[in-house]
Design a protein that fits this description.
This protein has helices spanning 2-11, 15-37, 43-47, 58-88, 158-194, 199-232, 280-289, 292-301, 304-312, 318-323, 502-516; strands at 98-103, 105-128, 133-138, 145-146, 151-155, 234-236, 241-243, 253-254, 262-279, 330-333, 350-354, 364-371, 375-378, 381-384, 391-408, 413-415, 418-429, 450-465, 470-475, 482-486, 496-501. By secondary structure, it is of the alpha+beta class. It is elongated.
């Protein structure tokens, strides 16, 4: 009872609340009435009520009755709500929603062509056994970085040293035979001059001497071959790079042929290549930007001699421009957990190769850029930053737009076939309720219009999207205008808002967090 008396006293302060209480009581009464009398399909026979052709249960009738009462009470509820809302705001105007705004910028914009690429090693070498023997020792650490000339492995040298000694002995024997053949040839010459021997005997001694000289050459070649085989037993790195694991363990027999011919592989990590593809349209757009179009028109209007001369006169590096070699590009790796962040900070970027044909299946051409691969050192450990096979992002400079109008991409909204932004500007605002009627102040009169920030719709024409997530606007905005970046879901066109910049919002949020600490 006390609760009901409190509710009655509270409702006396607002007529709308009294009406709301009556409606609620009526709803409760109607629900109890239909539940008490159990109205259903057979009730029309007892109460002389017309029968409805569809299933009319007590729950359906209660819902229809409640819906009718609710529709009749909407004007009373809305009137009471508007007055109550006006009274709560004090001065009369309701609180304005806060939105984060930014200013339209005008600056030079660099347009790029973006594509995906993959890193490729500039050189890769398989270290093979060039002689047969037992692998005695391994000097490299698997996965380590070796320099050119470092020892990698050692094959058993004793058989090759013996072979070298035998080759040197054969060389000494050949030289001794050559000395004897030379002495016999000299005696035969003297005897031939005296007429003591026939000419055929002299020619035989001459042939023996020539064969002895050839034997010396053959022995020298055998010595060099034995020395080379002995050198092959000491395997050294031909390039500087990173090694793989050893594919053959110590103690196994290795040979130039067979499954155990390759001992390891070395990949040259610096410099590194980046291969990427461009569509035929992008490729010819780049060439036209770099002087190819003028050279093409000169070639079609002049003779072949004049055309080649005009190509040479387009610039000092016109030939490079036509082939796109030497063109700078930017490379960015997907490092860390944020795979969508690209820094484009890899040094030494330049195009070194353009393929000689466009793939007819994909309509794309392959280009290659050379980049430097930094060597990182942490204590005694060292490793390269970039590995072959990594996916990277390639950025190619295409065009510079002077005095471009820029807005944030997330601020652009879409409406059917139009793009627009919500601009915030000063204007007169009349507070209204959801039904479009002016709000009533505490004095019972409509709230007077006042000057504040008003939301306006501005249709725009958009251009290219920059890598900074800024969009070039071709028309519809002026530099310095404020537009809503965050909070568009809380406003409508023509409503009053409280604008704040992102820096002010972050500073205020940081201050609130500091107070909570």
């Amino acid at each position: 009872m006390r609760r009901n008396r409190d509710r009655v006293e509270k409702n006396k302060k607002c007529p709308g609340k009294q009406v709301k209480g009556l409606i609620l009581d009526s709803l409760n009464f109607g629900s109890c009435f239909f539940r008490l009398f159990g109205y259903n399909q057979r009730s029309h026979l007892e109460w002389n009520i017309p029968y409805f052709p569809y299933n009319m249960t007590d729950r359906n009738v209660s819902r229809i009755f409640i819906l009718c009462l609710f529709c009749l009470s909407l004007p009373l509820l809305s009137g009471c709500g508007s007055r109550a809302g006006a009274g709560q705001t004090g001065a009369g105007a309701p609180p304005k929603p806060e939105v984060i705004v930014d200013s339209v910028a005008m600056e030079d914009a660099q347009i790029y062509i973006f594509t995906d690429g993959r890193t490729v090693a500039s050189n890769s070498v398989e270290i093979r056994a060039r002689v047969s023997g037992i692998l005695e020792e391994i000097f490299f650490k698997p996965g380590a970085i070796v320099r050119e000339g470092d020892r990698l492995a050692l094959i058993e040298q004793a058989p090759f040293k013996i072979a070298l000694d035998a080759a040197r002995a054969e060389l000494a024997n050949a030289r001794a035979q050559a000395s004897l053949a030379e002495a016999n040839l000299e005696r035969a010459r003297l005897l031939l001059e005296r007429g003591t021997i026939a000419t055929e005997e002299y020619q035989t001694q001459q042939a023996n001497y020539d064969m002895s000289l050839a034997g010396i050459d053959r022995a020298n070649a055998a010595v060099r071959s034995a020395e080379l085989n002995l050198q092959y037993t000491d395997m050294r790195a031909p390039i500087t790079g990173k090694t793989t694991k050893n594919l053959v363990d110590v103690g196994n027999f290795v040979s130039p042929e067979g499954a155990r011919a390759v001992l390891l592989s070395i990949t040259q990590m610096d410099p590194m290549f980046v291969e990427f593809n461009l569509s035929d349209r992008q490729y010819f757009e780049l060439k036209s930007r770099m002087g190819f179009r003028d050279a093409f028109y000169s070639a079609t209007n002049d003779s072949a001699t004049n055309a080649s001369e005009s190509v040479r006169q387009t610039g000092d590096d016109a030939d490079m421009s036509l082939a796109l070699t030497g063109m700078p590009v930017d490379i960015s790796l997907q490092t860390g957990m944020n795979i969508f962040r690209f820094d484009f900070n890899i040094p030494g970027r330049t195009v070194t190769l353009v393929d000689n044909q466009i793939d007819f299946r994909t309509a794309r051409i392959t280009l290659r850029a050379e980049i430097q691969n930094p060597l990182l050192r942490v204590g005694d450990a060292e490793d390269y930053l970039i590995y072959p096979g990594q996916i990277c992002r390639v950025r190619i400079p295409y065009e510079t737009v002077r005095d471009a109008i820029l807005v944030r991409e997330e601020a652009i909204l879409t409406d059917l076939d139009a793009r627009y932004v919500l601009v915030v500007g000063r204007g007169m605002h009349q507070p209204r309720d959801p039904f479009g009627r002016p709000l009533i102040g505490p004095d019972g009169n409509p709230i007077e219009p006042y000057e504040t920030y008003i939301v306006q719709r501005r249709t725009i024409q958009i251009g290219r999207l920059l890598d900074t997530n800024m969009r070039i606007v071709l028309s519809g905005l002026r530099p310095g205008e404020s537009y809503i970046v965050h909070g568009v879901q809380r406003v409508r066109i023509g409503t009053a808002v409280q604008p704040t910049t992102l820096e002010e919002y972050n500073a205020r949020l940081a201050a609130e967090l500091e107070e909570l600490r």
